[in-house]
Design goal:
The complex is a heterodimer. Chain A is α/β, with parallel strands linked by helices. Chain A has 11 helices and 14 strands. Chain A is 36% helix and 29% strand. Helices cover 65% and strands 6% of the residues of chain B. In chain B, helix 10 crosses helix 11.
Chain lengths: 314, 365
């Protein structure tokens, strides 16, 4: 079997709010699958339904061949879960936390000692082994949480925004660790709202208002973007913005330093030439160029622009 | 066995955290000791040295002996001699005397004839528990002293069984075991579980293979041991500081205590399934505490309460435990003698634990 997680028609309501709305999902094994979306897009709710913490209002979930939530207890032995918040015990030391989690997973004494040694070495925790978890830095806590989640060699790791409290260097190291786990055959599902992290995933689902707005490999998503991406460099960007505001085909404008990043409707023919002509008068020095889409462009096109289209249609 | 391994892993973790939380740990030892000292020394229903004034209209050697006898009980302390009824009234009104002793002029004749009272005790009814004292004093066998015992003007005497010296500590200390256990068991356990929910530990724990019963049993086990330690501590302080006797068997007492501890833990557990924050848990625990202390017969006699209060008291585990513990420690009863309150405790335990278990889910919704 090559699919680790498969969900159909997955829906969850909280009262009158629909947090997750009819999601279909296929997560391949031994890959990193990303959930990219803003807060409240349904990432955490989906992950919690996948590991049986929440019961779906509708839909079916199959994880590693087990039906969830019915067989969630059996699944739990093969599952590692890292919560959004650090959820190990602040008043226990690094080794005490790890030892406790080993016992909870029912590892025997020899295995316990070997695994703890491995994780402390792999995740660079040796110098903090006897330190209370509450006094660790953000990055160290993250490594400890990952070490604890992998003690029982889970087949599937669910990581809910694991790096939200971690600096860039530690995030880099954290992802190196994830790739090492994938190389060893682990499937990882990670949610994030960082574009650079999403870019590192093998596959990606962009979540928006409880729905999957786009799904695929990051490169493929950039290629298939539902818009043309144009970059404009100019001394007087305010003037450029004024011109762009009059062009109906322009969907979104974002500034990056002294450049403007513009998404144009994909039906527009030769939009770069048209813009160049329009800008020739007011901003003679403007340099207009067609560029490849970034993941952020994909995200904006899949969420913001799609919503505009829906509103317009209605 | 792996079931017990997991349960003990949870228990060991809980115990380790407890020893690190110095405030909580201090409370576990400190609360019983402070309460013991407070209740044992400060709260005292025995009254001594009540200020009294005497109006002696007889002025005979017998009347002086009578006043001397009253003083000798140490209950009364004669501070003033009044010359008239008017003066005695004034003394009492100002609060200079709480008790007035009026000895009539024809004391000897009245004592001999025995049909009319010879001594009148005026009691300040605005003060609690003084009334009882007067009752006690009035039964003093004055007549023997007068050499006229044969007439027997006061044919009855009061004898207090099981606590002949009527010391408050003897009544209070055994009941303190239940009161202190209620405090620590209900407050600390409900807090301990809600704390893990508040800090997010529970979200992680419930995604592991640990089962509901392992988790709950493991969390409660350290508190059972703490409860038994507290019981021992109170018994020891009661014995050595206040001379509270222990007539029944220790085995019966600890078995009874164990059932009560389990009942209190079940209540704490139930509260933890209702409360979202530690503060809420503390408030809820407190709401159950107050009726426990007031209605369980710990402070006030159960028999004097209105019916609805008695009904509430029947629901409280402390009421039944106080019954059991006083029976065993002071009256030398066995647990079998105490089967009625014991059964009520067991019913409370089963109902509360079922409610808690039904509400505690390994899920977030």
């Amino acid at each position: 079997m090559t699919v680790a997680i498969s969900a159909r028609g997955l829906t969850r309501r909280f009262g009158s709010v629909i947090a997750v709305d009819d999601i279909a999902l296929d997560v391949p094994r031994a890959q990193i699958y990303g959930f990219l979306g803003p807060n409240g897009s349904g990432k955490s709710t989906t992950i919690r339904m996948l590991c049986g913490l929440l019961v779906p209002t509708r839909g079916t979930v199959n994880v590693l061949g087990y039906e969830v939530p019915r067989e969630a207890e059996t699944l739990r032995r093969k599952l590692g879960y890292m919560t959004q918040r650090f959820s190990l015990w602040d008043d226990l030391s690094v080794t005490e936390n790890l030892d406790f989690m080993c016992r909870i997973y029912g590892l025997d004494k020899a295995t316990r000692r070997a695994r703890m040694e491995d994780r402390i070495r792999d995740y660079d925790l040796a110098s903090h082994a006897n330190q209370r978890a509450g006094t660790l830095s953000g990055g160290e806590r993250q490594r400890l949480a990952l070490a604890a989640a992998t003690l029982h060699d889970p087949e599937l790791l669910l990581l809910d925004e694991p790096t939200s409290a971690v600096d860039p260097q530690n995030r880099r190291d954290f992802w190196e660790n994830l790739f090492a786990l994938v190389a060893a055959g682990t499937t990882i599902l990670v949610s994030t709202h960082y574009m650079d992290e999403a870019e590192r995933c093998h596959r990606l689902a962009i979540l928006d208002h409880g729905r999957i707005a786009a799904e695929g490999e990051p490169k493929q998503l950039a290629r298939d973007i539902d818009a043309t991406v144009i970059e404009i460099e100019c001394a007087d960007l305010t003037a450029v913005r004024r011109v762009l505001a009059t062009v109906p085909a322009v969907r979104s404008v974002a500034q990056l330093g002294n450049r403007l990043h513009v998404l144009v409707h994909r039906d527009a023919v030769d939009p770069d030439r048209e813009l160049r002509a329009l800008l020739a008068g007011p901003c003679a020095d403007a340099r207009v160029e067609r560029v490849g889409a970034t993941l952020e462009d994909v995200f904006v096109a899949a969420t913001l622009l799609r919503r505009q289209d829906v509103e317009r249609a209605a | 066995m792996i079931w017990f391994d997991r349960m003990f892993a949870v228990a060991a973790k809980e115990a380790r955290q407890l020893t690190r939380d110095r405030v909580t740990f201090g409370m576990i030892i400190g609360v019983p000791v402070i309460q013991m000292l407070l209740f044992g020394y400060a709260i005292n229903f025995d009254v001594r040295d009540v200020d009294a004034a005497v109006l002696d209209q007889s002025r005979t050697s017998l009347s002086r002996q009578l006043v001397g006898d009253l003083q000798a009980t140490q209950v009364l302390h004669v501070v003033r001699e009044a010359d008239s009824e008017r003066e005695l009234q004034d003394l009492m009104q100002r609060g200079d005397a709480r008790v007035g002793i009026v000895i009539v002029a024809d004391l000897e004749r009245r004592l001999f004839e025995g049909d009319r009272p010879a001594v009148q005790l005026l009691v300040d009814g605005s003060q609690p528990s003084l009334e009882n004292i007067a009752q006690g004093l009035s039964s003093m066998p004055v007549l023997q002293r007068a050499g006229a015992g044969a007439t027997g003007a006061r044919p009855f005497e009061i004898r207090t069984e099981y606590n002949p010296e009527r010391r408050t500590a003897v009544q209070i200390v055994p009941a303190l075991i239940g009161t202190i256990l209620t405090m620590t068991m209900v407050i600390f356990t409900s807090g301990a579980i809600v704390r893990e929910r508040e800090r997010g530990n529970l979200e992680l724990l419930i995604t592991t293979p640990v089962t509901r019963s392992q988790l709950l049993a493991g969390k409660l086990l350290p508190y059972v041991i703490i409860g038994l330690i507290q019981t021992t501590l109170i018994l020891a302080v009661g014995r050595f500081l206040f001379g509270v006797p222990m007539i029944g068997s220790f085995l019966d007492l600890y078995l009874g205590a164990l059932v009560f501890i389990a009942a209190a833990l079940a209540l704490g557990l139930f509260i933890s399934t209702l409360a979202q924050t530690q503060f809420q848990a503390f408030q809820m625990a407190f709401v159950t505490m107050l009726p426990s202390i007031l209605l369980s017969g710990f402070m006030f006699p159960f028999e004097g309460m209105p019916r609805f209060a008695q009904a509430i008291a029947q629901v409280l585990p402390l009421t039944h435990f106080n019954e059991i513990i006083r029976g065993i420690t002071l009256r030398g009863a066995t647990l079998a003698d105490m089967h009625v309150p014991l059964l009520k405790l067991v019913i409370f335990l089963v109902v509360m634990f079922s409610l808690a278990a039904a509400r505690f889910r390994k899920r977030l919704d």
